[in-house]
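Reminder: ligand-aware prediction takes two inputs, not one.
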Amino acid sequence: MNPIQKETLSLSFPGKTPLSHIVALQFSDVHIGPGFSPHALEEAVRQMRQVHPDLYLFTGDLTGLRPLARYASFVIEQLHSLQAPLGKWAVWGNHDCCDSPELFPEVMRRSGFVLLENTYARLWPGGPVVGGVKDGIHSEPNLLLFQNVQAPFRLLLLHEPDLIDTAPANSFDLALAGHTHGGQISLPVIGTVVLPRYGRRYPAGLYNAAGGKLYVNRGLGTSDFPLRLGVPGELTVFHLCIPSA
Ligand SMILES: [Fe+2]
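Here is what comes back for the chain with fe (ii) ion:
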């Protein structure tokens, strides 16, 4: 089984209003199938539940090399078991768009996730917003999503990290992406061999982009080639100190 590494980040966003501390858990690029089996998902979900986050954030690509239909009921059962007081939020990945355009939204909905499709929502009245854009390879992501939004904190979900360069300056506080798998295979001396389209400028980790801070999760599963080497799968736990109203 691919090892899963839990990354923990503490990020502070000072503001004039009272501050809130929230814990957010990001997971990405499950690609359920040969490279990430139902058993591996069960283990990842077990680890996620131990964190007891305030919200779960999924940054796309649930679909793997085999049809999602084969795993749908098990995936729903697992993801539905995740509970968080501030909700469960998700965006499309490019594989979801091209391989499961009808089933993916149904699986997310039945798992209790809100699929953000160039839309946003408030975490509480007058409080932070969480928004998500459509996939950038098969759809039209709207990186102007928060343009006229007044909010003490703006959290943005997108699948392909390099799209963040099309967001206006200071247009969000924190953006979370996946898609790259951190390169999936990293060889000694040579390093990362292949990075996907729209995933080459920001391969993994924390960045200061023009629009705001960006974090790129390495994902859990694999695509194209069912092997990870030198790049463990990732669950990311964010301890956020943010303005609350
Ligand atoms: Fe992807």
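Residues 4-243 form a domain with the Purple Acid Phosphatase; chain A, domain 2 fold (CATH 3.60.21.10). The CA atoms of residues 173 and 212 lie 5 Å apart. We will return to this case in the review session.
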